[in-house]
Amino acid sequence: MREADVLIIGGGLIGLLTAVELADRGARVVVLEKDDVGFEQSCRSVAAINLPGGAPSARMSLLRSSAEQWANFETRWGYGVDLNADGWYIVIENELDRQWLEVERSTWQATAGYPESSLLNVSEARARFPQMQGHFVELDVRHGGHVDAFMVMRALTQVARDRNIEVRCGEMVRGFQVGGDRVLAVTTVKNRYAPSLVVIAAGLWSPDLCNQLGFHIPMQRVRAPAAETGPMPPGTIPGFLRGATFGAKQNRNGTVRITGGYRISAMLHDLSLRDGRDLGIWLPALWQNRKDVSFRLDVKALGMELTSVLAGLVRDGDMRFPQRYEPLSSPRDRERQLADLAGLIPLLRHARVHRYFSGVMDLLPDLEPVLGQVPGTTNVYIAGGFSGHGYMYGPGACAAMAELIWTGRSEVDIEPYRPERLLGPLRMRKQIF
Predict the structure, then answer these.
(1) Which of 224, 201, 228 is nearest to 388 (CA)?
(2) Burial class, 80, CB count within 10 angstroms (exposed 0-12 / middle 13-18 / buried 19+)
(3) Model confidence over 78-121: pLDDT tens digits?
(4) φ, ψ of residue 363 in degrees (nearest 5)
(5) Residue 172: which of 297, 307, 272, 43 has the closest Cα?
(6) 298-307 long-range Cβ contacts below 8 angstroms, 24+ apart
């Protein structure tokens, strides 16, 4: 393997975006991925995105930067990602939905970068979308849409190849050799690497890596089940559609991908050894959302976690992570979400689910990513904790990280996302999604 300026641990969306941004700035980059590129959440996400529209906010936020980069992604990188710019629509059916929207709208308008949002009444909405024949009272309309997650990862893999970035799949990081405040080497099952800089972009597994460097991330693993139907007529789902109990988008081939809603997401919390340490932070939020969050014990994942702990005790910090991690999806819950969606769009009453699957999100208490230099180190950075919003934040966050790593500064202010904030008291955001 050739020498690298930067070694990136993790070959998902964030790892590859950071890699190509660094390569465009002149860095020699190597990416290590324990599975295949995008194997976990990056290829399982609904990949909803914000897009430019209306008057931009005064400051360049991560969301604004990401919106602009998604709008120009295919032109800049030269590969298609099936960009859908048909809009982002939030369905309001009752007073509880309206209360949720009031809180969420204030957050959106403060952070989106393109905060324009409008409300359509039932007549206006049906004139625009006649397929919406079920009950609702309002439709919130924003600039946005979605991309195809598989196409994005395929595009980034090709961009990396074009820029001579070495992406090594099936290579699991096992530990670090540390000297003072620097990582001198990164060891894997097969090799030993000695880069100048290290970026941890390992998604769910980033806390385990950071623990080896003395930095704790209070992250929870929240399973995000989804399903996909057979092909439906074009235009069945406009843009990215969210209801209280469902989220949906339509792929170019006509299939409809269904996921959780904004108030009732049907998320599954996989119990892990991490839970005990951060129980004081998470327990209030878990109790508040107890009707929505179901607790599960993934025996395989817990077994791997125990194996990693024991290996670390026996072999001085040696780490093990699950490979080919395939969490289950509950067909019953997905069928219920499809039925709720069909209540709004009757055309879907005849749809049948062809595939059930799950991703797992890296949830942080304040739902903000963690971006910057790992405290206590001088040559290790982290980009993670996107809490289900990796596609929304990703391009802006990775461009900012590349600037910070390569030049020591960033045009976009990433101070609110600095890792040091996790060292102090953390407050749970009232609305998880």
Answers:
(1) 224
(2) middle
(3) 999 999 999 999 999 999 999 999 988 988 888 899 999 999 99
(4) -90, 130
(5) 307
(6) 298/270, 298/271, 298/327, 301/221, 301/270, 301/272, 301/325, 301/327, 302/271, 302/272, 302/273, 305/272, 305/273, 306/273
- Look at residue 428 in the predicted model and tell me its pLDDT: 63
Measured over the CA atoms of residue 117, residue 68, residue 419 and residue 204, the dihedral's sign is positive
* pLDDT(312) > 70: no
Tokens 């960009």: give the residue. Answer: 83
CB atoms within 10 A of CB 103: 12
Q: What is the DSSP string of 184-242?
A: EEEEESS-EE--SEEEE--GGGHHHHHHTTT-----EEEEEEEEEES---TTSS-SEEE
Percent of the chain with pLDDT over 90: 71
What is the predicted pLDDT for the residue at 1? Answer: 44
Measure the CA–CA gap between 348 and 342, rounded to whole angstroms.
5
Q: Is the pLDDT of residue 17 over 50?
A: yes
Q: Give tens-digit pLDDT for 56-68.
A: 988 899 999 999 9
Phi-psi region of 376 (alpha: psi -120 to 50; beta: other; left: phi over 0): left
For residues 94 and 243, the answer to whether their CB atoms sit within 8 Å is no
Q: In terms of Cα–Cα distance, which of 391, 75, 375 is closest to 249?
A: 391
pTM of the model: 0.93
C-alpha 7/C-alpha 187 separation (Å) is 11
Q: Quick one: how far is CA 64 from the chain centroid?
A: 17
Q: What is the DSSP letter of 247?
A: E
Question: Is the per-residue pLDDT at 158 higher than 70?
Answer: yes
What are the DSSP calls for 18-46, one per residue? HHHHHHHTT--EEEEESSSTTTTGGGTS-
- Cα–Cα–Cα angle for 34, 269, 342, rounded to 5 degrees: 100
Take residue 234 and report the two structure tokens written for it: 């074009």
